[in-house]
Specification:
Elements (H helix, E strand, L loop, with lengths): L1 H27 L1 H10 L1 H6 L15 H7 L4 H23 L5 H18 L8 H13 L6 H16 L3 H14 L4 H22 L12 H5 L2 H5 L1 H12 L1 H10 L4 H17 L12 H11 L11
């Protein structure tokens, strides 16, 4: 009975957080919604006629395109975010299975609150769809049956490659280092995001035109965008207050140094072709951090019942 009560509380908790995330995001980004009504930015992407690079990230947008057929865009986005926020929260909770329930719930609250500010620099309704793909992919690493696990990881990487090929490459690097010792799988996994990006750029959408600058290095080095983003100060405050816990976690998880190296590599990529203050770009890496947290945490006085 205690287990059933705990499951019920978790589901209700995730539903409430999902509704919070969906509504807060929409209310916070009214100007972006008005831009969509005036310009049909996503409407053109749904018709496979949008501009690059958003056109190359079509997969997480397909469920939204289906919902838009039945609801106005604003309501469709809210429903989309409720559904996928709930899915993501459930997946992240599964990744943290074995930790104390109150730690899991606290992490979920922090994720929900941080999500809003992570999109401050650029509202993207498909972010939760991307999070669902990345979370599912990392959750597949916990499967024990080897043939099934490799198959699911390959399918997950393929899905991620059609959502964010750059992120898919670094996920492939993580899997190649930590999830297999076979070079055949390493070559397949590392090749998926590269080949998919080439297919998107030269075969599927050969006429897509970039609407943003391709090189953002000097803009980032100026610090202009970082200073303007409120999330920058939130991160600095968290680093200041939780520095000991963060350093302790880094020390315990040093066996995953190649993951941190890949994360630094991704930051370098964003520095050149993206904006450092687009913190939503780093959200898909949270499932890997949650997995590492689970594997490196010392389970002392574990609670099995509800909070």
């Amino acid at each position: 009975m205690n287990r059933e009560i705990h499951i019920g509380i978790r589901i209700l908790f995730h539903i409430l957080l999902a509704v919070f995330i969906a509504n807060a995001a929409n209310k916070f980004f009214v100007p972006d919604l008005e831009y969509e009504f005036d310009n049909g930015f996503y409407e053109r992407i749904f018709q496979f006629q949008g501009d690059a690079p958003d056109q190359y990230r079509i997969l997480p947008l397909l469920p939204l395109a289906l919902i838009v057929d039945f609801l106005p865009f604003n309501h469709a986005v809210i429903l989309y975010n409720i559904i996928f926020s709930f899915i993501v929260l459930e997946l992240l909770a599964a990744l943290m299975k074995g930790l104390q329930p109150r730690k899991i719930f606290l992490a979920q609250i922090l994720f929900a609150a941080t999500y809003i500010y992570a999109q401050f620099s650029g509202w993207r309704p498909d972010t939760m769809g991307l999070m669902a793909i990345s979370s599912s992919l990392i959750l597949a690493t916990t499967i024990q049956r080897r043939p099934l696990r490799e198959t699911l990881l390959t399918l997950g990487l393929l899905a991620l490659a059609f959502a964010r090929a750059d992120i898919a490459f670094w996920f492939a690097f993580f899997l190649a280092v930590y999830e297999t010792s076979k070079w055949s799988w390493r070559i397949i996994w590392l090749g998926i995001p590269i080949l998919s990006q080439l297919a998107l750029q030269f075969v599927i959408f050969p006429d897509a035109v970039y609407y943003s600058k391709k090189v953002m290095l000097w803009d980032n080095l100026s610090g202009f965008y970082l200073v303007r983003h409120p999330g920058t100060y939130l991160i600095l405050a968290a680093l200041l207050v939780f520095r000991k816990s963060i350093l302790a976690f880094l020390k315990k998880s040093w066996n995953y140094k190649w993951f941190y190296a890949s994360l630094i590599g991704y930051l370098g990529l964003v520095l050149i072709i993206g904006r450092l203050n687009e913190y939503r770009l780093y959200l898909p890496f949270l499932p890997i951090l949650y997995l590492i947290w689970r594997k490196t945490s010392v389970h002392e006085n574990e609670e099995t019942g509800p909070v």
